[in-house]
Amino acid sequence: MALEQTGLTDPSGAPLRFVPHDFRRIFTTDALRAGLPPHIAAKILGHVDLNTTLGYAAIYPEDVITHHRAFIARRRTLRPAEEYRDLTPAEWDEFLGHFELRKVELGICTRDFGTPCIHEHACIRCPALRPDPAQQPRLQHILENLQARLAEAEQQGWRGEVAGLQVSIASAQHKLATMAELVGRHRVTHLGMPDFRPTAGRSITGAKT
After folding, report:
1. What is the share, in percent, of the chain residues with pLDDT greater than 90?
2. CA proximity to 106, closest of 8, 20, 179
3. Which among 22, 47, 130, 189 is placed 20 to 30 Å from 198, CA to CA?
4. What domain range includes position 49?
């Protein structure tokens, strides 16, 4: 009824007709043009794939980027200026130093920036360690050493050592399994080289002069 009263028509001259899904698209377009970040719009609409959200919007990708940048600029005006100042050399060195300390014997430590090592560098037990598959032989050697120490502790009756070593052994075995999984996941598949000889062997006769 409302559309009939407006007299609006489509390019063919027929009266405009809207369905509920059209309003969903209009909402998405207006929200993105107003600066709403696309990933938030996707969450509101229940989309798993961001490209689905962008497909709903009658808007070009460069417009999304422009409006998103404007949205971020408006947000920054509401934040303390201290958060956007340039880093001092000492702060930058501290930032780089944190990532240098992530490099450990058995892989990479994934703990957050500015947080201490809660396991006091007992990386075998730490869930924040991302094992390096290249260190499998080293970890296997460590595991064998732990098992030998466990046998000694059990023989001597050192119950406290036994409990601690059992935890370390279980963690080492889990990380060895993770390394093996990573190796299998990134295995190289050789597809061979294409044979161009039939094509390259064809003779090309030039024009006679």
Report:
1. 8
2. 179
3. 189
4. 17-77
